[in-house]
Write a structure and sequence with these properties.
CATH superfamily of the largest domain: Glycogen Phosphorylase B
Shape: globular
Protein name: Glycosyltransferase
GO molecular function, one term: glycosyltransferase activity
Number of strands: 13
Number of helices: 16
CATH architecture of the largest domain: 3-Layer(aba) Sandwich
Radius of gyration: 21 Å
Distance between the termini: 26 Å
CATH class of the largest domain: Alpha Beta
Keywords: Transferase
InterPro entries: Glyco_trans_1 (IPR001296), Glyco_trans_4-like_N (IPR028098)
Strand content: 5-15%
CATH topology of the largest domain: Rossmann fold
Largest sheet: 7 strands, parallel
Number of domains: 2
Order of helices and strands: EHEHEHHEEHHEHEHEHEHEHEHEHEHHH
Pfam family, one: Glycos_transf_1
Length: 381
């Protein structure tokens, strides 16, 4: 198949870009279309491709300020033209990638990480009081109705949707009125599963790891551990770093900044548990933690309900510091029944090979004009 891969932007290398990397591995001749590309920011499998960018690429300083151009992104993706004939367009979308205009007769398969979360159900997490400056909040409120209409209308141009979780499939139905199959994203667990299961948790600390984005709710963990007599180590950085870093924090909370990929497996393994505070669309860090044989204390909503079980973690039902603190106290008792091998077995269900096989099957069916009767993909997950 001659395939065009479409991705929102290639500026950082996180979960969405790891999905794109896995797709590139099984589609060696695919071209990539994206709004903005920062050369050198991606894996060799991505950087080696022909990468076509939108007019946003030519704006000075765009790689640092691309989020500020959200109102222009629909126009930019619609203006991006395919440079040749393709058997299939495959978009990897959490913002506007699914809105690329495809030629008549070319099927479009869209893998959805999330509908445009900052314009739908997580709007207040990004633009609520205290989350952004007043001019930014006013602008977001002004463009929100238009962006939501555009988001819904362009869903009609997609032949078939694949969601990264049942949680996201329900949002695709709710916001766009479309059904979606479910194929969980690939998680590179090999290096995490190589650490020994024996002796885990010896560091005595709890671990929070992720981008400092508003919806990640690191603030909940910071406030909860302000009241707890337990160490919290925080890994990551991002757009909320200055606001969160300005807080006066107790000595039991330690910021580590970014940590190298090589150091992460040991950091997970020595933690008592991963603290997972967001309502995540899927969530890779809980699986990485479980692959090292460590449990998760997770907000019981969204993708965590598909990756963590009652045998591999403890849930809290409200996204508040008090609820998280109560869960940490319950964990002190629950921990005695935890089995590291059960956590690793749970993580191994979400392999890269299973994702690639299921996606190739969906692509081949769509090119042949065969659509499965059920919206559930036979991914084996």
């Amino acid at each position: 198949m001659k395939v065009a891969l479409v991705h929102d932007w290639l500026v950082t290398h996180r979960g969405g870009e790891r999905v794109l990397d896995a797709l590139c591995e099984v589609l060696p001749d695919a071209d990539i279309y994206t709004l903005v590309h920062k050369p050198g920011s991606q894996s060799p499998a991505i950087e080696s491709r022909r990468i076509y960018t939108s007019f946003l690429q030519h704006i000075p300083g765009i790689h640092a300020r691309y989020r500020h151009f959200l109102p222009l992104m629909p126009s930019a993706i619609e203006a991006l033209r395919l440079q040749g004939r393709y058997d299939l367009v495959l978009s990897s979308s959490h913002c506007v990638a699914k809105g690329l205009r495809t030629p008549p007769g070319t099927p479009h398969l869209s893998y959805v990480h999330a509908p445009m979360r900052y314009m739908w159900d997580l709007f207040d997490d990004y633009f609520g009081p205290g989350r952004a400056r007043l001019p930014v909040r006013a602008a977001a409120h002004a463009v929100r109705p238009w962006l939501r209409r555009w988001d819904r209308q362009t869903a009609a141009g997609v032949t078939r949707f694949i969601a990264n979780s049942r949680h996201i499939a329900s949002k695709v139905q709710r916001f766009w009125g479309r059904e979606a199959a479910v194929i969980h994203p690939p998680v590179a667990l090999e290096r995490f599963a190589q650490v020994p299961l024996e002796g885990g948790g010896q560091g005595g600390y709890f671990l929070w790891l992720g981008a400092f984005a508003p919806y990640k709710r690191l603030d909940i963990a910071l406030e909860a551990f302000r009241e707890l007599d337990a160490p919290l180590w925080v890994v990551g950085t991002g757009q909320e770093a200055s606001r969160l870093g300005a807080r006066r924090l107790p000595d039991n909370i330690r910021f580590l900044g970014n940590v190298s990929d090589e150091a992460l497996p040991a950091l997970y393994r020595d933690a008592r548990a991963l603290i997972f505070t967001p309502e995540e669309d899927f969530g890779i860090t809980p699986l990485e933690s479980q692959a090292t044989g460590r449990p998760v204390i997770a907000y019981g909503k969204g993708g965590a309900l598909e990756t963590v079980t009652e045998h591999t973690g403890v849930f809290f039902s409200e996204q508040t510091p008090a609820a998280l603190a109560a869960a940490v106290r319950r964990f002190d008792v629950w921990e005695a029944s935890f089995r590291p091998d059960a956590a690793r077995a749970q993580a191994e269900r979400f392999s890269r090979a299973a994702f690639q096989s299921a996606m190739l099957r969906e692509m081949e069916q769509l090119v042949r004009g065969v659509l499965p009767e059920s919206p559930e993909s036979p991914s084996g997950l």
